[in-house]
Design goal:
This protein is α+β, with helices and mostly antiparallel strands and 311 residues long. It has six helices and 15 strands. Strands 1-2-3-8-9-10-11-12-13-14 form a ten-stranded antiparallel beta barrel. A three-stranded mixed beta sheet has the order 4-7-15, with no helix packed on it. Strands 5-6 form a two-stranded antiparallel ribbon.
């Protein structure tokens, strides 16, 4: 075989590099979708009052092969061990709400994600997809059976599942006598990174919400841990305090004053005091009056032993 002149070697190397770059998306785009994925979307809403506002949402997807079909499950309520940066407590209501800017997981949250996230099953959906040509789909549209019958159907599909996957969720509401209303969510993969464990691309919803998404392989989903009765008491107590400034003015100083004298109250006792404090406030007592009355009652009830809980 004839050898090319040595002077052409650098040009051949450049050509090889160019070809590798051109072929890279086709070679590197294959991805195994089976398993669990965390999907994080950043978007702006053109129809919102503030269209430039940064918004985000996330969910957990699970893909599982089943008898020649593909089960696609979606869990819209994802829970991290540490919710820092995801939610904030709103002034006035005391309730947690989604932050109003783009959120990215911290290193600790990424570790939590890799180990497996907890999900709330509320709102979860599962579709069974059949292979149609080179794509997967949960089925065609159902036709309305009468002018007075309104039908609703969701169709989920995955196009190019072995290339750069495109995830589609289409919902249709309508009847024979009314124009159909259609909603469409599309996540179109543009790059596959980290050896197939990270998909990034464009997000579109109904032509008004536009942005980007990251779909990262996650550990197996976890159910929410069941709370003990003591933990439920503590949670209810804390939520009540957070929702009422008056109750906080009664119980926070009450606990501090009792603690100074070595009187510690457990969760059940605190829950009982919570109800008593609310009744006193409902009777027109001021927070200071209610605090003094409750403190006197606790000291009297304790009588050198553990305080009794009130009915």
């Amino acid at each position: 075989m004839a050898q090319l002149p040595r002077r052409l070697a650098p040009h051949l190397k450049a050509l090889a590099a160019a070809l590798a770059t051109a072929l890279w998306p086709a070679v590197a785009s294959a991805v195994d979708l089976s398993g669990t994925w965390h999907v994080l979307v950043h978007y702006r809403d053109a129809k919102a009052a503030n269209p430039e506002a940064e918004r985000w949402e996330d969910r957990l997807w699970n893909f599982e092969a089943s008898g020649g079909r593909l089960r696609w499950a979606e869990y819209p309520i994802v829970i991290f061990n540490d919710e820092t940066g995801r939610f904030e407590r709103r002034a006035g209501t005391g309730q947690y709400a989604r932050i109003l800017h783009f959120w990215e997981p911290s290193p600790e949250q990424l570790a939590n994600l890799r180990a497996g996230l907890a999900v709330n099953d509320r709102g979860a959906e599962t579709k069974t997809l059949r292979q149609l040509g080179g794509a997967w789909s949960s089925g065609g549209r159902a036709s309305a059976t009468g002018a007075a019958v309104i039908t609703y159907q969701e169709t989920w599909s995955i196009e190019q599942p072995e290339g750069l996957p495109v995830f589609l969720q289409v919902d249709v509401l309508g009847s024979e006598s009314a124009e159909q209303l259609e909603g469409k969510t599309e996540l179109r993969t543009e790059k596959i990174l980290e050896g197939g464990d990270l998909l990034v691309g464009r997000f579109e919803r109904d032509g008004t919400r536009s942005g980007t998404f990251e779909m990262r392989r996650s550990g197996a989903r976890k159910a929410l841990p069941k709370k003990t009765q003591s933990e439920l008491h503590a949670q209810a107590f804390q939520r009540s305090l957070e929702s009422s400034d008056e109750l906080r003015l009664v119980l926070d100083p009450l606990r501090r004053d009792l603690a100074k004298d070595g009187v510690e109250l457990d969760e059940a006792e605190l829950s009982a005091l919570l109800g008593r404090a609310q009744r006193l406030l409902d009777q027109g007592k001021s927070p200071d009056e209610a605090r003094r009355e409750l403190e006197q009652a606790v000291r009297s009830e304790r009588g050198g032993t553990a305080p009794k809980t009130a009915p």
